[in-house]
Amino acid sequence: MEKVPMTASGYARLTEELKHLKTVERPAVIRAIAEAREHGDLSENAEYAAARERQSFIEGRVAELEDVISRADVIDPSKLTGSTIKFGANVNLADEDTGEEQNFQIVGQYEGDVKAGLLSITAPLARALIGKSVGDSVEVTTPRGSKSYEIVGISFS
């Protein structure tokens, strides 16, 4: 069974989502199915079909979250050290074309949210950064073309 690396905050978010699905969403969809059944003919009942589809989505997501959580390998980045980029590192990058700086933390594949500065370990940029040090340059192919970044800083917190 392959372990899934993630930060403590990512683990907490996933367990909270699982709890919400089980305690709020699942009972609500069960009520919606029961209510739709009361309306009669199920073959022409759009409410029933929609509720069943929602139930299918919820059950699939619950199964996925339970699987990921059971294989979670929670890593505390504040206990990591070093001068090279690895999982959990906070990385300060400068775009070599514009000079614009961005900060990212390299997190597990189920935690990624670029807008929040959380870069999934499976993202092309994160894969290019792993093992690099301050002052190194990396080139990454993005949907908008090739981009070059210089690593300005690395920290673990």
Automatic annotation (TrEMBL):
Limits of the Transcription elongation factor GreA/GreB N-terminal domain: 4-74
Keyword terms: DNA-binding, Elongation factor, Protein biosynthesis, Transcription, Transcription regulation
GO biological process assignments: DNA-templated transcription elongation; regulation of DNA-templated transcription elongation
Pfam families: GreA_GreB, GreA_GreB_N
Gene3D superfamilies noted in UniProt: Transcription elongation factor, GreA/GreB, C-terminal domain (3.10.50.30), Transcription elongation factor, GreA/GreB, N-terminal domain (1.10.287.180)
Residue ranges of every copy of the Transcription elongation factor GreA/GreB C-terminal domain listed in the record: 83-155
Gene Ontology molecular-function annotations: DNA binding; RNA polymerase binding; translation elongation factor activity
UniProt-listed PANTHER family: TRANSCRIPTION ELONGATION FACTOR GREA
Family statement: Belongs to the GreA/GreB family.
Function, as annotated: Necessary for efficient RNA polymerase transcription elongation past template-encoded arresting sites. The arresting sites in DNA have the property of trapping a certain fraction of elongating RNA polymerases that pass through, resulting in locked ternary complexes. Cleavage of the nascent transcript by cleavage factors such as GreA or GreB allows the resumption of elongation from the new 3'terminus. GreA releases sequences of 2 to 3 nucleotides.
Name of the protein in question: Transcription elongation factor GreA
